[in-house]
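Service request form, structural biology core

Requester: graduate student, group of Dr. S.
Request type: structure prediction, single chain
Budget code: on file
Notes: please return the result as structure tokens.

Sequence provided:
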Amino acid sequence: MYYFKGIPQELGFLFIFLLLVFSWLLISKSRKENLKLAIEEGELLEASSDSLFKSLGFLLAGIVLLKFGADYLVEGTIAIAKKFEISERVIAVTVVAIGTSIPELATSIVAALKKEHNLAVGNLIGSNIFNILVVLGVVASIKEITISDSAILSFDYVWMITITFIIGLFIYAFSKRQISRTEGIILLLIYISYLYFSIY
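Core staff response, request fulfilled:
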């Protein structure tokens, strides 16, 4: 993205392909592990067709509602940017980013309180993979994404890479594959600093 100053259609198709490969590997591994566990416990659970149809119904309804929600989100973002005479980029990396991340935050908090740490971390990692490969991939495959605001590449992109590096240090170097409360506070302060410099 940095070298292309955007995301061409070819890269969008590549993202979608990578997501399919990642999903296939993940599901295959998960099915094998669950089958092995079920055999060891002597309990092979049968899937309920009623539950499947119900889940598909909820999925389709959610997709339809999400479409309208996305329209309102974009229109509201543009209106706020024009009202306060600030760039759409700033609104996108603050209001929109926070708004779309609240469900993930709530899910991770509940999972952490229930000591489901794998779910809490997996939710965040999976969300980021989905955003990069699916959101950017699908949009770019339909229409090439061109980055007109240079601050995205010169400022936001650098912050993203730096924060990713810091998280890697916390997990693999400092805390033996865990993020302590102190490190969590440090990450929160880093994000607040990012917001401050983004706005001002």
